[in-house]
Amino acid sequence: MPTQQPPVQLVASGDSRLSANQKCWPAQKALEEALQAAIEKLGYRLQRAHQVTEEGHGFIDSQKRGMEVFRTIDPDAPLIVAEAVWQYSHHVLAGLLSHRGPILTLANWSGQWPGLVGMLNLNGSLTKAGAEYSTLWSEAFTDDFFLGHLKTWLETGQVHHTTEHVATLAPEWIPQSANETGKRLADELRQQKAIMGVFDEGCMGMFNAIIPDHLLHPLGVFKERLSQSALFAEMQEVSHADAEKAFHWFQEEGMQFHFGEDDAEELTPNQVLEQCRMYVAAVRLADHFGCETIGIQYQQGLKDLTPASDLVEGTLNSTSRPPVFDREGSKELFAGQAIPHFNEVDECAGLDAVMINRIHRALNQPVETTLHDLRWGCLDESGTTNEYVWVFEISGSAPAEHLGGWEQCHGYRQPAMYFPKGGSTLSGVSRPGEIVWSRIYVANNALHMDLGRGESITLPPAETKRRLEATTSVWPIMHGVTYGVSRDQMMAKHKANHVQVAYAHDAAAADEAFWTRAAMAMALGIQVNLCGTKKDGSRWDQKG
Question: Is 0.90 surpassed by the pTM of this model?
């Protein structure tokens, strides 16, 4: 009988920041109580493999602690990694990779804290590492979808989700013009080569966000490994006058900063001036090292020295941005160009951004791109659309062009529990338009790309406010619709916490950019998976 089986073990990976773990613990506790009820209903027992600490939370908060916990777990026991919060995958990755029993990653369907995002990051990390696992998600842990799959996992150790929305790209599907352009751009990248500036790898234990060099080099992309300390040192060389020029540029362009006086909890002008200093320093370093794209880790180390880099990142991703000159003031750097930035030093997003920038310039399409967290989603309560609407949301790296221009952008203080030194977000609501969404990831020691089409839609202010308040209200948001991909299909297939988005002028132009990216990726040796459908609902392998 099931009740005679050994108990199912539960672990919860968390943040490394005590303030975040303490604040988010009630949501995790509620998840675990609901999960325990569901498991007991099916006749099994759930046992926590580590206890609530004296610090007031029950999360594994370091790699060291994770290894200690896994030494006490039966390596053959069924194991659930339950997440209601953002988590650092390296806290538990070592233990999971040596665990022999069935593994289930599980998240609550909630936008409050990014548990879904944390689980998807762990899934991508396990996929890259070649580990076997199953995955599940639920809003209340009482629905038939969840209980049916949970029962199957408890009985068999596996859960399988259908992914009929995915088709492996065949060369003959690609239109001739897109195929020729994609191949030409792939040849140019291999021949000309490109440098990816990496300001410290492995942000927040994101193992899935690191592309091994041996997979990157054949594409013609090489890393310049830089240190965040070098960025901080370069900031000290930026004059107050240069920082003020950038600050004034934002204000003259109409960006709305929401200032207060309490530096510990509110945004202050000095925080923004420091971010302007970082922006100038980042552009100068990118120029000095010849970087086509850069990524700043910032969540570790740098956050304890200076305000967050989100305003910097979104500005770098914008074509319209404050001009930056070399130290001598004689030469404008990257004039009239975006400098693609991959938030949280996600190298998979950085590679994608390099491809998007080159493709969209060749096609005369908008070049600005960003990653977003695949944060959450729900049905539209305003009645505007019957489509399922995702909340694509990131901490601030969205370019101004995505948000409707600088006059539509807002600067709010980053949450103190994550960023003690504060710093402005680059916040706003993404404009309506046709998009191409994508994700590059590592599986089976090879690069893969999931590629799909969709739309950023407009929702009424009240519905937008509801979604922001259900997530992180000071961050930029996109109301995303994914053509032909349901909520559960996306969760079943997506191998990352991030999704890349780029706009096109219209649906036909977006399809052209889609096919050109597919062609370029295939020519570079990346396995391409076409997800969902065209806007009209037809399959990608159907001509016309």
Answer: yes
